[in-house]
Amino acid sequence: MIYLKRRIFQGLGTVLPNAWLPGFLSASLYQGPMKGACTPLLNCYACPSALLSCPIGTLQHFAAAGNVSWYAVGTLSIVGASVGRMTCGTLCPFGALQDLLYKFRGWKASLPHWTRYLRYAVLAGLVFVIPFLTRENWFSKLCPVGTLMGGLPWVTMNAGVRSMVRSMFWVKIAILLFFVTTSTMAKRPFCRAICPLGAIFSLFNKSSFLQLAWDPATCTRCGKCQKICPVDIRPDRNPTDPDCLRCLDCTLCPSLKLATVFQRQPFGGTAFPAPVAGSAPGASAN
Amino acid sequence: MRPIAFLVTAAGAVSVLSFGIFRKEIAEVLINGALLCLSCIGIG
Question: A–B: how many Cβ contacts below 8 A?
Answer without folding.
Answer: 158
